[in-house]
Automatic annotation (TrEMBL):
This is Glycosyltransferase. InterPro entries: Glyco_transf_N, UDP_glucos_trans, UDP_glycos_trans_CS. Its EC number is 2.4.1.-. Coiled coil: none annotated.
Length: 486
């Protein structure tokens, strides 16, 4: 890091993984940094900028100094269709290495773009899955931080498992073991806590090596979390990495007005006002919200079981089904011709496509969230004091479930034991399990009331973290200082 006395206006360059779950917090981070006096450039491609254009327009209207660099996606050079500009559009496992290659090829045009920018860039914040950001920072001779989209708990758990070489002695990926180095006994399996960055997957060795090098040589780690949520694990992560960790979250709280919450991540597939008016008509804490994020793909038999469980519960709900999932004829037929939507009319809303999740979770009528445990969704739920029914699918999601259920005790598990990947979903969670799970979330008295009390109290604490003088704001100011030194 440069240590000269000269101070200049900080200009942060944020390089997110081209995935909604990483682009969304990147935009939140940009808004926060710009609000505190920094110029910010968010690096995207045309298709990804189009997705967040409503957010970009709102930021522009607020006169915040945030720029969106739309670099051409190097599809032909990486032998990948131009339509695969976001990870949720890559439906073939064989194309994932090409997708990561395409992102790395943005390095040269990005350096050329940044050399013409004024004020000049003073700090790079690159996603953990964009390790080539270290080369950009090196060429520009500026400091670089890594943004991890994972929880600090997940990062500590993965690091401790790797350092203890636990996987070398395991032959069964589903055999339970105690995660070493935690303050309480928590079990995992290799399937639930996979090696970082596909490091054991053929074809990903170079990317894994670069990712580890990028973390070893970075000037700090930025997380979508806060001391009020994960103080012990943030400290532990600093100890095991030797890096300063800056918890500046929960990042969803950067969106303070209704308009920003409504368009966070993408243009909603439903009129936001219509959705909120429907929620306005419902009693407080009476609605279950069901959504599995942007990347997960639920197979038709499982979708039908989820719907049947929601119907049998008799509870009010909002259920998000992706457009790609609706392409299955049996799903569309079951929703309409077989009468599901008609039977639940009045108490159930099906959103087909992208939902205004931030606005929905912030509404007082929502009393529970059935979630895939992506860390963005977890922080949104906690920020709004909403308990969770956990339904992890892959990657860090099982570790996040452990945070929700075993550490924070603000959720209940649906009982998923093995990763669920596209085209390989074999174990179906039955409608009776779904019904029991959502009823458990809204149960009166006993454990249900205690759980709601805990998550409400936790929500109040994390909201204070992003207020003036809060831990996240103080960390944000430390980032501004890093970007101010040339």
């Amino acid at each position: 890091m440069a240590t000269g006395e000269q101070q200049q206006q900080p200009h942060f360059v944020i390089i997110p993984l081209l995935a909604q779950g990483h682009i969304i917090p990147a935009c939140d981070m940009a808004r926060l940094l710009a609000t505190h006096g920094a110029v910010v450039t968010v690096v995207l491609t045309p298709a990804n900028l189009a997705r967040v254009q409503p957010t970009a327009d709102l930021i522009s209207a607020s006169n915040l100094p945030v720029r969106f660099a739309s670099l051409p996606f190097p599809a032909s050079a990486a032998s990948i269709p131009d339509s695969c500009q976001n990870i949720d559009l890559v439906h073939s496992l064989e194309l994932f290495t090409n997708f990561f290659l395409a992102m790395s090829l943005l390095q040269t045009p990005l350096v050329q773009y940044l050399r013409d920018q004024h004020p000049p860039p003073t700090c790079i914040i690159s996603d953990q899955f964009q390790p080539w950001g270290m080369y950009v920072a090196r060429e520009l001779s500026i400091p670089r931080l890594i943004f991890h989209g994972f929880s600090s708990f997940a990062l500590v758990a993965m690091r401790n498992i790797k350092d203890q070489a636990i996987y070398k002695s395991l032959t069964d990926p589903h055999k339970p073991f105690l995660i070493p180095g935690l303050p309480q006994p928590i079990q995992a399996t290799k399937a639930k806590a996979p090696p970082f960055f596909y490091e054991e997957t053929p074809g990903y060795e170079k990317m894994a090596e670069e990712a580890l090098m990028a973390e070893d040589t970075c000037d700090g780690i930025v997380l979508n979390t806060c001391l009020e949520l994960e103080s012990h694990f943030i400290k532990q992560l600093e100890d095991v990495t030797g890096k300063k960790v800056y918890g500046i979250g929960p990042l969803p709280l950067a969106n303070k007005d209704a308009a920003s919450k409504a368009v966070r991540g993408n243009k909603p597939s439903i009129d936001e006002l219509q959705c909120l008016q429907w929620l306005d008509s419902m009693p407080a804490s009476s609605v279950i919200y069901v959504s599995f994020g942007s990347i997960t793909h639920t197979m038709p038999p499982q979708l039908i079981e989820i719907g049947a469980g929601l119907e049998a519960s008799g509870l009010r709900f909002i259920w998000v089904i992706k457009q790609s999932e609706l392409m299955a004829p049996e799903v569309s037929k079951w929703l309409t011709e077989e009468g599901f939507e008609e039977r639940v009319a009045g108490r159930g809303m099906v959103i087909k496509g992208w939902a205004p999740q931030a606005a929905i979770l912030a509404h007082t009528a929502v009393g529970g969230f059935v979630t895939h445990c992506g860390w963005n969704s977890v922080t949104e739920a906690v920020s709004n004091g909403v308990p969770m029914l956990t339904w992890p699918h892959f990657a860090d999601q099982f570790l996040n479930e452990m945070v929700v259920v075993e550490v924070l005790k603000v959720g209940v598990p649906v009982g998923i034991q093995k990763p669920i990947t596209y085209g390989e979903e074999k174990t179906i969670v039955g409608r009776d399990v779904v019904e029991k799970g959502v009823r458990c979330l809204l149960e009166c008295g006993g454990e249900g009331e205690e759980r709601r009390g805990r998550v409400r109290e936790l929500g109040e604490k994390v909201c204070k973290a992003v207020e003036d003088g809060g831990s996240s704001v103080l960390n944000l100011m430390k980032l501004i200082e890093i970007g101010s030194n040339k």
